[in-house]
Amino acid sequence: MRLLTSAPPRRTTPTSLSVVLAAVLLLVGGLLLALPDRAGAGPVADSLISQGRPATSSSVEDSTFGPEKAFDGVSTTRWASTEGVDPQWLRVDLGPSATVSRVKLVWEVAYAKAYRVEISSDGTTWTRLATETAGNGGTDDWTGLTGTGRYLRVYGTARGTSYGYSLWTVEVYGTTGSTTPPTGSFTVVAAGDIAAQCTASSSSCAHPKTAALAQRIAPSFYLTMGDNQYDDALLSDFRNYYDKSWGAFKAKTRPVPGNHETYDPAGSLAGYKAYFGAIAYPQGKPYYSYDQGNWHFVALDSNSFDDAAQIQWLKDDLARNTKGCVAAYFHHPLYSSGGHGNDPVSRPVWKILYDARADLVLNGHDHHYERFAPQDPDGRATADGMVEIVGGMGGAEPYDIETVQPNSQKRISGTYGVLKLDLTDTTYTWQYVGTDDQVKDSAPTYTCH
């Protein structure tokens, strides 16, 4: 335990106290006369720079104990990881070019016996600021630190109890750089390929579990990347299955259709349109756009990328856009290492998005998780390319990874979960979170084009 301590107060009599006060006043007055240009000057204490900043973590015990609770300035709220698992970490985004001099940790009963305090400029490569190997909980106050970066994390390697890790408070002190920190941060949850024909009464039914996870994250809104309902997306099936899980936050969902929505005997997209109504057709078509913060979102129907009206609408929509960051989502991925593989139907749309300097593309169709490095429509890795994520693990039966594609950076199959996207006015990053609340993959932080 590291505590800043001071000597106990000295008892004084009224007489001795008066003498002391008089002496102090004389001394201060003498200093003011001798050094008028420095009166009141002295080293300025570093500021608290972490309060209210965006935070992420490797896991949470449940939504009550989210990572943001350690940075909210409230001493009675806390972050808690899932129990019984090492390692675990808690990360805060301090904004560009922060210099850190002090980190104060207030542990709950579930403390770390061994942990590191680390700093990073990109969220990938970390530099150690402090190391604890024999922690005993309470308050750890690390002073005299020297480190510069954007992200700070507490990385626990050994629990002090049989529980997880839990921090009432993390306070990071220092200075921020001259660059204005990102603002307008918000979180979005996304998934595709969701509601198999089963309910929570079956322990093997996955979509009620991904829905519960999505609700625990409590995002600003939810995206779906198609194949929302299996097998033929009848209205009755939407009501019997999807509505019993993901339907709980239907009003905050911005969906797109997949190929299974076209199989409805009542007509292509009939059940999908009847269930979602204006939520899925806010502009009268199964494709639409909207803004959040400095982000422009484009929701597309990849079943009809040969529809000239949709393609012209997309070009016009992007030409009108005034936001600094652009994300598009639709069902069929141009690139995928899964069973369906690459789908060239999406290439013309990629070219339009790329020419408009879009940043992020989200897809489903293949039932696995995968992220790609920035690339252009021809699959060439380039810093000004678009990042693609395949997130088809919302509840349908998983597909195996088959042919690994160039620029694929991470692939996970067999683990149901959702994408937790953290966006600011200038950046984006995400985690793939499993239904056990464990973070299965953390992406780098990208800056919008």
UniProtKB/TrEMBL annotation:
GO molecular-function term, one example from the UniProt record: acid phosphatase activity
InterPro entries linked: Calcineurin-like_PHP, FA58C, Galactose-bd-like_sf, Metallo-depent_PP-like, PAPs-like
Region: Disordered, residue numbers: 48-67
Keywords: Signal
The keyword Metal-binding is annotated on this UniProt entry: no
Residue ranges annotated for the F5/8 type C domain, each copy included: 37-175
Biased composition range(s): Polar residues: 48-62
Keyword Signal among record annotations: yes
Protein name: F5/8 type C domain-containing protein
Species whose genome carries this gene: Streptomyces filamentosus (Streptomyces roseosporus)
